[in-house]
Design brief:
mainly beta, Thrombin, subunit H, 0% helix, 48% strand
Amino acid sequence: MADIDGNAVPSTSKEPQERRNGARTLCSELVRVTFRDQTGEPVRQTGLLEDLSRDGLCVSLPYPLPVGAEIDFACDGFLGQARVEYCHIGLYSYLAGAKFSNGLVWNRSVWRPSHFLLLGDKED
């Protein structure tokens, strides 16, 4: 992977592969993310919810999330837990993909981000 100037950029995991079963919804919504560091202390950061699917989400953050970490996330009107599946550096921030935990499933008829665009033809 390279930055905008063509310099090599380290990745915190493999490039993400499409793993979603349903349609992806591109969106833009502030999200608060919390995980526990190696000492058990909570680490909190605010990022941007980039996309959602029935089973997970992708967030853009200023700092990386550890792959495998359990996170708590909260948007205005939508919150839950997820497990980080990948995290890599993008052009301007880290992109982390996480799969929902504890049976959580996103249903767009219950909550929609402020700004969204449905991609694909599958309805959840």
